[in-house]
């Protein structure tokens, strides 16, 4: 059940994140809370509570400081990507200091990129963040795909990364087709 929940939230973020900032904020906050709770090896109930609290706190904070919404969403989506990247690159022994550095560095960098490039950056960040949650959900829900959530070194890391990029690319393409007005995509130029 837990894998399916994170899979569904990840799919919403990956394939519809740019369509609604509220949905992107709630899904990013949920994903961040979930992945951080998972890094801390918390129980399933505590993980759900942590994820739900993350979604609410992130949504309230974003609403209160809407002027900085793109920056804040970029930080949260960057933290989701950083948490998954830490998980993929450190399959066995998790180095908490290295994980913290990766998560914070990606969060801050993505925040600045999202603030500067707005919808275009959020398109990439929601696709990557959502795809990371989809991988985690698939790995948790389907036993034979558990390597997508916790890959071992070598081939599993490579394949998990490849699947992550493929899902993110599918999310990116889907969002571009569903929300061209939010991205200010001019279809007449693309036809020429």
Would you write up a description of this structure?
The chain has helices spanning 2-16, 21-39, 44-64, 69-89, 96-141, 155-178, 180-183, 187-191. It has 192 residues and is mainly alpha-helical. It is globular and about 45 Å long. The mean pLDDT is 85.
In brief:
By secondary structure, the protein is mostly helical. It is 81% helix and 0% strand. It is globular, with a radius of gyration of 16 Å.
Unreliable residue runs: none
If you average the pLDDT, what whole number results? 85
SSE succession: HHHHHHHH
Q: Tell the overall outline.
A: globular
Helix run count: 8
Distance between the termini: 47 Å
Instruction: Output the structural class.
Output: mainly alpha
Rg over CA atoms? 16 Å
Please report the total strand number as a whole number: 0
Biggest beta sheet attributes: none
Percentage of residues in DSSP E strands: under 5%
Provide the helix percentage. over 70%
List the helices and strands and how they pair.
Blueprint: H1 2-16, H2 21-39, H3 44-64, H4 69-89, H5 96-141, H6 155-178, H7 180-183, H8 187-191
Helix pairs in contact: 1-2, 1-5, 1-6, 2-3, 2-4, 2-5, 4-5, 5-6
């Amino acid at each position: 059940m837990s894998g399916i929940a994170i899979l569904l939230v990840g799919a919403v973020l990956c394939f519809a994140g740019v369509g609604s900032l509220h949905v992107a904020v709630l899904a990013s906050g949920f994903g961040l809370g979930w992945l951080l709770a998972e890094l801390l090896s918390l129980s399933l109930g505590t993980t759900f509570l942590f994820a739900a609290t993350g979604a609410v706190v992130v949504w309230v904070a974003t609403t209160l400081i809407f002027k900085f919404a793109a920056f804040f969403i970029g930080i949260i989506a960057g933290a989701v990507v950083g948490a998954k990247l830490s998980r993929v690159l450190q399959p066995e022994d998790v180095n908490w200091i290295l994980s913290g550095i990766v998560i914070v560095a990606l969060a801050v960098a993505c925040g600045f990129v999202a603030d500067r490039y707005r919808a275009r950056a959020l398109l990439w960040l929601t696709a990557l963040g959502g795809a990371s949650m989809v991988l985690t959900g698939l790995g948790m829900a389907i036993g034979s795909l558990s390597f997508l959530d916790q890959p071992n070194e070598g081939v599993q890391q490579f394949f998990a990364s490849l699947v992550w990029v493929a899902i993110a690319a599918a999310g990116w393409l889907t969002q571009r087709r569903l929300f061209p007005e939010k991205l200010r995509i001019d279809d007449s130029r693309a036809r020429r």
